[in-house]
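Issue 218. Parser rejects a valid record. Input:
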Amino acid sequence: MSRYCRGISCGAAHLAVLTVAVALLPVGAGAADSTIESRMAGAETYDTVIYGGADYANGGSIEDDYGVDFGFVTALNGDIGTSGWVVTGNIGYGETDSIVDSDTFSTSLLLGYLWQMPDYYFTLSGGVHYVDNNDAVPGSPTDGSEVGVIGQYGFETSAVNAFYAQSYGSLSSVNDQAYGHVKAGYKTETLRFGGEFTVFDETASRPTLRYGAFLGDIPLGERVNMVVSAGYQQDLEPGNEDGFYTTIGFSIPFSLR
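Output the parser choked on:
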């Protein structure tokens, strides 16, 4: 089973939830605007964030994993900068090039609640999760299609010129998938940076661990932001090699209503 597939099928939906902060802090906002309320004053109100991302992992001399994902998070109260109910959806595809190739398709739709505080937010969501795996070994425990339920959480600090932390994770009944991610570092007026750790796993396999660094909130125009990360990937599955990974993501806040 592809190491990328184990991660993207659980983790992609979290990226949409974690892009909420983009709508709260316009590019170039000053450090004096230290609260959500002051940053939103005079700023446009957004109800939706869309995102896209790509992931590459190299498994030594025997494997290359690729993946892309797209999704959205929309606030049912019309303002994603305030507490309220949110709907999150995503779609992802991953492929492994190895001795025997494999690929996976995944999608999810979740309903959750977002708690916005002056210097952080927290969210809990639950919904439906679908995965279709075309494994390298037909008939393996994770081969084929399955529909299940998924629960996830997200947390992120928003204070500028201060310590920065972000965490999100999920548990899915599909192949007993588990995903966890933590970032820690520093957030300035325009950028956030630091170290990150990721773990993902599913039935009939050993966990895959990632240790890396990230740089986020890179402005690409008035509303488009980018985050990049890279580091070392440790595969605990016997016979698989360790390697490196790199990811890139984009997010855009806008209004549908």
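Fixed in the parser; the record now loads. Residues 1-42 have pLDDT under 50 and may be disordered.
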